[in-house]
Design brief:
The complex is a heterodimer of chains A (about 150) and B (about 325). Chain A is an alpha+beta fold and about 150 residues long. Chain A is about 15% helix and about 35% strand. With about 325 residues, chain B is an alpha/beta fold. Chain B is about 35% helix and about 15% strand. The chains are: A alpha+beta (about 150), B alpha/beta (about 325).
């Protein structure tokens, strides 16, 4: 049986693969990708994951902050750098140990929500948890995905 | 003081041995806790005139941006006992904050003239922020619902003074264990010591959060909804108030507000020498009849706030950040 190609591969850019199904919507909200050509695969069949999301970004590589956002939202995602239609680098994104300025604290009484202060969080794994450097509140993966900001 | 602590007495306050700011009990190790306790014991015995030279020519600023009477007076008394001059802000509505100045800017301003800054603020994490923007040592006198480390240190000092040790003790925490900041911090602090057993009694719905139990595995923990069950085992009952202001629903508060009362009858079932502690203010958790018994330790506990805060201030005097 002929393999059906639903998504046309890109020549140059980045593919964010193995995203948790449904997480692409949130990523598009928090990554600044406007004016770029994107191709999205939502709820795509995957041998490894059952269902997954995938985002192709044409003509651009991602910054460390952007990769940290992807790691926190699309747990276990892989990043493929594509040049001349070939994958030249494949990285499984690991959780950052600490992040600055990419999440807001979920505690409404945290000082970072009262003043202009760059938020800072320590990230721990197994299970994924973030701890606010200032108010010390700890929260898990679902709240982390909500807390990541543009 | 009945026993000896592992840490050596502090000959001279030194940033190499102590913290550069006192923000959270989670920053403390057993060694730094013991530094405070030994320093407090030393200061309690020190003649008044000698003590008054420790912070001579130093200026301590107490910035209380949230109402507090006991903690502010205790810190200011401690600073004055050490010979420091004290400048105080206790009514934020009369300061530049009321004109819209940020908390961070207020701290930077105080950084310019004070040698040590004591801060209380209604927002969680404010003290950590202050420490970040300030080159002088910051002491957290309570940041919202987060931390109040000097309270925990005075609790530990009271236990140590009374029992001569902390290792091996059996401590019951009773009351609101869900919202109570003091019992949360005390759990973490006790987990640095050896062979400590903690019995957790609370009315249904006010249990100690699971994550704290997970993170203090060094303690031997027993949870119960029956106050009397473990009373014969314990050395200390640490009672806390059911905090009305924490309940979203008045009816829920009414259901549990008189959930437990420590009476002389209850104490008669405990072993000889049992002590009752409470961070105060108490409402109905401890019957007034207990006040005049040898078990009542809560007023001594409150008084221990002075030597412990003297110890904190004296240990911070030469800190270089």
């Amino acid at each position: 049986m002929k393999k059906e190609i639903r998504i046309t591969p890109i020549k140059k850019g980045t593919a964010i693969d193995h995203l948790n199904a449904g997480s692409a919507y949130k990523l598009l909200e928090v990554l600044d990708l406007k004016d770029l050509t994107l191709t999205l695969g939502i709820n795509v069949e995957s041998r490894k994951m059952g269902r997954k999301d995938i985002i192709f970004i044409e003509g651009r590589e991602l910054s460390q902050k952007e990769m940290d956002k992807i790691a926190l939202i699309g747990k276990g995602a892989t990043l493929n750098i594509i040049k001349n239609s070939e994958i030249v680098n494949k990285t499984e994104l690991s959780y950052p140990q600490k992040v600055e300025g990419i999440m807001r604290c979920i505690n409404p009484k945290c000082i970072t929500n009262a003043e202009k202060i760059t938020s800072k969080f320590l990230i721990s794994k197994n299970p994924l948890q973030a701890q606010c450097f200032y108010c010390e509140i700890k929260f898990g993966d679902k709240e982390i995905a909500e807390a990541v900001k543009k | 003081m009945k026993g000896h602590l592992a840490a050596k007495p502090v000959k001279k306050a030194n940033s190499n041995h102590f913290l550069s700011d006192v923000i959270s009990i989670s920053d403390f190790s057993r060694q730094t806790i013991e530094l405070v306790l030994t320093q407090a014991a030393k200061l309690e015995k020190m003649p008044r005139e000698k003590k008054a030279k420790i912070l001579q020519n130093k200026l301590v600023a107490t910035l209380f941006l949230e109402p507090s009477t006991r903690t502010r007076l205790s810190f200011e008394s401690a600073a004055q006992n050490l010979g420091a001059k004290v400048v105080s802000l206790s009514e934020p509505q009369t300061s530049s904050l009321s004109k819209g100045e940020s908390f961070s800017d207020t701290i930077k301003m105080a950084n310019g003239y004070a040698d040590i800054i004591v801060v209380r603020h209604s927002f969680d994490g404010a003290a950590r922020r202050a420490a970040e923007v300030c080159t002088k040592p910051i002491v957290n006198a309570g940041d919202g619902a987060n931390q109040h480390p000097s309270q925990t240190l005075l609790d530990l000092y009271t236990i140590y003074k009374e029992f001569g040790k902390i290792d091996g003790l059996k401590i019951m925490m009773a009351g609101d264990l869900k919202y109570g900041r003091t019992v949360h911090s005390l759990m973490y602090a006790l987990s640095h010591f050896k062979d400590v057993t903690v019995y957790l009694y609370s009315p249904v719905g006010l249990e100690m959060p699971k994550y704290i139990i997970e993170e203090t595995k060094n303690l031997k923990i027993h949870q119960t909804n029956n106050l009397e069950k473990f009373i014969p085992n314990v050395d200390i009952i640490y009672a806390t108030r059911i905090q009305k202001e924490r309940f979203p629903d008045e009816l829920e508060y009414q259901k549990v507000k008189n959930a437990y009362v420590i009476t002389n009858e209850l104490i008669s079932k405990a072993k000889k020498g049992v002590k009752i502690m409470h961070p105060l203010p108490r409402i109905t958790e401890i019957a007034q009849e207990v006040d005049s018994t040898p078990a009542a330790l809560y007023f001594t506990q409150a008084a221990n706030g002075i030597p412990v805060r003297e110890a904190i201030l004296s240990l911070l005097q030469d800190v270089k950040k």
